[in-house]
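Two folds, back to back.
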Amino acid sequence: MAGLHTAVSAASLLALTTWCCHSRADVGDFTPCAYFLYHGSPPKGLLGVPICQRYLNQYRFASLYSRRNRAPWYSAYVFTRPAGKRPKDDWKYEPQLAYAKADGNMVSFPHGKVDQNIVESQAVQLDYFNSSYTHGHLNPSLHHQDPEDRNSTFTLTNVVPQKFGSNSGPWARMEMTVNKLLTKYCKDKAYIVTGTMPYQTEHWLKENRVAVPEYLWSAYCCPNYTKLPENLTNVFPTFAAIGRNDSNSTEEIVPIDWGEKKEFWGYDVRIMPLDTLEMYLRDRFGTFVSVFYNQCSEP
């Protein structure tokens, strides 16, 4: 489909197995942060710029970034049982998107004028100012225990324009549901990938500055879990969901629940099997998409 990233980069299809190597570039290579990817393998089917999101000299999660959209296609991370309060908003940017030889640690935005190379290479706070959109975390601080991991999620390379009705309503409830399920039933590592589906006709913030997604999607992979009650056998080892980010979207993918609170009308979330999510991603991107290596079927 015109205007969408529909190819697969050869580098992003490698089975990656190491998590270290700070001498490697943080932008352009998933190898240093393969720890956050099931079997070290990123989702297949989407083309973008790999970012190993580094904060305070430690890798925290992985994102596939679209330079054109100035927004991530997805973020991938390992769930840890949350603790503590939500951190204060301290929004950051990725220096290596602006300067290839820059340090790989994310940096807080300055209080004054932002360097023009940064403005051109990625989203900045001004893009969201006086818009009708909130900062929609793909990797939410809610899904982490370590305070520094939580702080690291406040980077605009992990954020997309998200309507309040989604961000504070059904999507927030879905994130909490995932939190409770994984905390109670997942025995070892749980891998989560959360991403976006673009409009068929592009929507933008501030005159082609930042692409607005029509839907958000999320999936987890928990290969090792405890005995489940019968009503939860369909959400392990995998779970998937698509959420509306536009109250005026049609209902083919996610129907509207008119019994929802009025402020959340049209921002519903639909829970579905992983292969159903991948079918919708394939249809929208026009290419084969696989979120987890071998459908999360190996320990």
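---
second:
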Amino acid sequence: MSSLIKSAKLAHLCLKHTPVALTATRNHWNKDYKPGPYPRTEQERLRAAERYGLHPSEYEPYPDDGYGYGDYPKLPDISGDAKDPYYPYDNPELKRNFNEPLHAEFDLMREDRYNVSARLRYPLWFQWVQFLGVMLGSFGIYCLFEQVKMFHPVVPRQYPKDGPHYTFEPK
């Protein structure tokens, strides 16, 4: 038991000063996954396109607006539902091929998540009108009938000590 405690203390001591190692062991994160700085020159742009396996004409980084995407490529918004189901993907569960760069919002656009390319049955403004109509209608009915109090029609409870409440004598 003491060897287990000593090894836990040693692991804590080793990982306390290296948060990258701690993150890599806990979350399967690699420091190479982090995008590089935003490409300023054409040579940096070509190097980033090569890093992500894209042709230089296809490579377009996200704009440098402070969100921290760096040199990560701005890929088209195509969710998993919109991809061809009969294509022989290397990883058919995620509908992607080996060394294919992931979209920056991949966790939102998988096949079991939101479909960004879906056509809605009803336009969004119509959905909002329906929602607000139901909510305002319910609120209106509540305000209208708030003045009318409803109760269960109940007579007072009868106890034997209060006297006879019925008789068997003919009238």
